[in-house]
Design goal:
alpha/beta
């Protein structure tokens, strides 16, 4: 079973080197590694060229979803795996992905564990981290954030033929900022595919954002989540109401209450951000042109990676 590994990057040469070094060491799996490079300079290209066997796909497009879709189109493996340029996969990452698909033919998607590469700075919350050590199988409509993150996900190729591709308006670099991975996860589950979370499939995520940059990322997460919610509500999918309530209560209001009880302003700000920015995302996405059959936005994305 051939595995295609897709890494998307834009102007982050200082981050991607360790990711490619880890992928170059590889394991026993039959793999190809593709770097979809949206960079505006040559630095990333020089780093990729230092790793023989890794294929660079330069493109003038902007947006993570566009890069992911290009990687899917250019790849040849039966399994397509994604990690990010700010991640360092474990030595057996590729082998663990293949083992999961081999052991469970009914599984069409595998999500993995994501741990901080270094200890977070005091008072800062690590982002895009998934620490559970319990393997779990998902089927049917679920909260997509329960499975994992876009920095550690892999799919059988037939998933893209049935569930479609990543929404190019969502995601970093798109108009609606984020949550292309959660949206795709939700769409594949509602299409009838089964997915599993495997703690054996491990990457380490660099926490390179600090201070206000983290709050800007929280803003983008919220806007993307709101856009994701309103998109599926416009498709008359009312299960989304449960996901909205979960976010506003568990991820929002509980942080506000805790902040009020303890006097910790960071929790007040976090809870308020998660509620207010998701409402802003819903407002922004309410009239964006939408293709109902594929549940994807049609507006041309603009902007760049955060």
């Amino acid at each position: 079973m051939k595995l295609s590994i897709v890494v998307c990057t834009r102007n982050r040469p200082e981050l991607i080197g360790e990711c490619l070094q880890a992928l170059s060491q590889g394991g026993d799996a039959d793999t190809e590694v593709l770097v979809v490079d949206q960079s505006t300079g040559d630095a990333t290209g020089r780093i990729v060229s230092a790793h023989p066997g890794i294929r660079r796909i330069p493109t003038s497009s902007v947006g993570l979803s566009r890069a992911r879709n290009l990687g899917i189109a250019q790849s040849s493996g039966e399994i397509v795996a994604f990690t990010d340029d700010d991640c360092v996969p474990a030595p057996d990452w590729a082998d663990s992905i293949v083992r999961e698909f081999d052991r469970s033919p009914e599984i069409s998607a595998v999500y993995g564990r994501s741990l901080p590469w270094t200890k977070p700075a005091p008072g800062e919350r690590p982002v895009a981290v998934k620490t559970s050590t319990a393997r779990k199988v998902f089927k049917g409509r679920r909260n997509p954030w329960e499975l994992g993150h876009g920095c550690n996900m892999s799919f059988r190729r037939e998933v893209f033929q049935s569930a479609g591709l990543f929404d190019e308006v969502l995601g970093p670099g798109g108009t609606l900022r984020n949550c292309d991975d959660a949206d795709f996860t939700y769409r594949l589950l509602r299409s009838g595919f089964s997915a599993c979370y495997s703690p054996d499939v491990l990457v380490y995520h660099k926490q390179f954002r600090h201070g206000e940059d983290l709050w800007k990322l929280e803003r983008d997460y919220g806007i993307g989540a709101g856009a994701f919610y309103i998109k599926h509500l416009r498709c008359r999918d009312y299960y989304i109401l449960k996901l909205i309530l979960d976010r506003w209560w568990k991820a929002g209001a509980l942080h506000i209450f805790y902040g009020l009880l303890t006097g910790k302003k960071s929790h007040l700000r976090l809870g308020w951000s998660r509620i207010s920015y998701s409402i802003l995302g819903m407002w922004k996405a309410r009239k964006v042109e939408l293709r109902l059959d594929s549940r994807t936005f049609l507006e041309t994305p603009a902007g760049g990676f955060p």
